[in-house]
Amino acid sequence: MVEVKQAQAHEPEAATTTLLPPAAHPGDACSLVDTPALLLDLDAFEDNLRTMQVLAERHGVALRPHAKAHRCPEVALRQVALGAVGICCQKVSEALPFVAAGLRDIHISNEVVGAAKLRLLAELARRARLTVCVDDAQAAQALSEAMLEHKASIGVLIEIDVGQKRCGVQTPEATVELASMLQSLPGLSFLGVQAYHGGLQHKRSLDQRQKACDKAARLVRRHLDALKLAGIPCSIVTGGGTGTAVFDVASGVYTEIQAGSYAFMDTDYGSIDWGEALAFRHSLFLLGTVMSTPTADRAVLDFGLKSTSTESGAPELLGHDGLRCVAVHDEHCILHAASPSDRPALGQKLRLVPSHCDPTFNLHDSLVAIRGDKVEGVWPISARGLSR
Amino acid sequence: MVEVKQAQAHEPEAATTTLLPPAAHPGDACSLVDTPALLLDLDAFEDNLRTMQVLAERHGVALRPHAKAHRCPEVALRQVALGAVGICCQKVSEALPFVAAGLRDIHISNEVVGAAKLRLLAELARRARLTVCVDDAQAAQALSEAMLEHKASIGVLIEIDVGQKRCGVQTPEATVELASMLQSLPGLSFLGVQAYHGGLQHKRSLDQRQKACDKAARLVRRHLDALKLAGIPCSIVTGGGTGTAVFDVASGVYTEIQAGSYAFMDTDYGSIDWGEALAFRHSLFLLGTVMSTPTADRAVLDFGLKSTSTESGAPELLGHDGLRCVAVHDEHCILHAASPSDRPALGQKLRLVPSHCDPTFNLHDSLVAIRGDKVEGVWPISARGLSR
């Protein structure tokens, strides 16, 4: 029996859960946004979208931005409006709000295993043009059976392991064998291959990235040559990302690139060498309030690990030379001020650039879209938490 | 104008967002739980609750478990049912679902700064017995004004920095000065102090923790002595945590302890030396499915950083000697098998122990409560994402 102390003279609990207002309203000054909040600077964001779209179009390569980066349909709609052919999702359930928002061309850039997920995938395939990755004969068989059972059909790409050491077939021979099987399985259309190497994206020097990309492209070409020799048509070669996009589009191998972070530019991507190649701007910010100034050299912000991911480092303050984030606790960021005059005041709001956008988006339910000093919209991050 | 390719012959999108079933249903066998999922082993969980409750009661110290660890009202109701005096929340908005669930004695173990949050705090203070921390005169003034404006009253504790170097007043003199001010501010009742030191909780050896606790307790006593000398009554001394609980309850300083992780026992707490003092069991598990077995020594699970936090390390497989998690990507865990026979099969489900429970809970919308091999309930993690 649950015994809960009932304090006297308190109001009834009705509507307790509706007490929380939105973090911001369109038209608000940015200074009114409640914290912690995730801000999107629309001017920088739109510049980034155009920069990548122009790069892809110049090389005749399709841009299929990765929605795993943001999980936000309003972002995807703007990417498609500018010319993206569709989007990628990494998980089946993640695709749901994008289909609901009207996106109709989605590549699930991942293997899907398990009866519940295959059922959901088939349901989605009846509602949108869907493609999915496979790297295993048994999984391909299960995928085909699910499509048959639910009267759906789906495009299939074979994932090739080009050095990431994650999923994917290992040899051109295995690719040909699996492609032959896929051609014969009902409910499936073999369309091409996926070759993605996340590790390459973050190599610091442009030269290192170029060399690593060339190596991956040579590997992809061996698989493509083997398919050609076997007489198996392959119309899609999808892969690539923000850090390697400039090489991927010029490689002659990829028909589409899957970049995601380019729209936001976290500190991790911000710290790699971009040369003259591309110029992306930071568009994504964490907004925090100084909630304590206990010493002359310390200020504490009101967000932590539950609002920002840290596996690529602490979020960074830009334009505050004497102030830096020295620790991130569950609900606090600890800032160190080089001198007392660098310490922000109690109640002051500060913007920080997250170190890794994908898992940071996944911690927030909404994205506060701002232009200049005004809130333009509050966009639901509808696929937040949809990881099945 | 957003242009979205409309594929032909697709079903209308109605109900797309309702396609996703719950990850599990009460009565299901555990093998049917869809992944990724967060599992709570109720037998181990209930043992842990009893162990800590017994420890606290044996020393006449109140147990006020920290709800920031789990953000799940069903967990808090069970803690209170066993004798906890109430709960702690770290954020104002986090407290909302707990008040809605019937919890009526909540300590906000943190400073609250900003008009929107103070308004919410006052609204909650009209519905439950609330206490909150302050460490600043200006913040105390704003808190009092908010209580007056919204016709509410609240208990106030001064947070003391006992070495964590986060928030909190720095000297006994500052504590006395602030307490005197709090006594005179309308809408506020000065009730005591909070002294929490997160860093101590995780020191590996029992002896190190004992010494660090003693040092913190001596510091607290200096503040308490100064208050006594000034004739200011102090009825609550709250603090302590899972790692130091055994010393905190015996210190003679604390009137209540704020432990949270004891209920779940992540790998970080699991790896510290517990001596003969207390025995907690792992009750919290991440359930993943093997979605790819690309090589003889590699298997890939279908969850990553979006389902488990890693700032305290990768999640761990217990009871699988030849298999370990070697990398955590955004949506994948990479497992390395010592020999081919150690590699799990495609589709197999595996349980891993998370390294840090608090931010891991915050990545999930529900907690699948299991007993033995059956699902007993699916509990909403209602305060997930409520970080304002």
TrEMBL record, chains A, B:
Residues 1-22 are annotated as: Disordered. CDD domains: PLPDE_III_LS_D-TA (cd06819). Pfam families: Ala_racemase_N (PF01168), D-ser_dehydrat (PF14031). Gene3D superfamilies: Alanine racemase, D-serine dehydratase-like domain. It comes from the Bacteria. Residues 283-371 form the D-serine dehydratase-like domain. This is Alanine racemase. SUPFAM superfamilies: PLP-binding barrel. Keywords: Lyase, Pyridoxal phosphate.
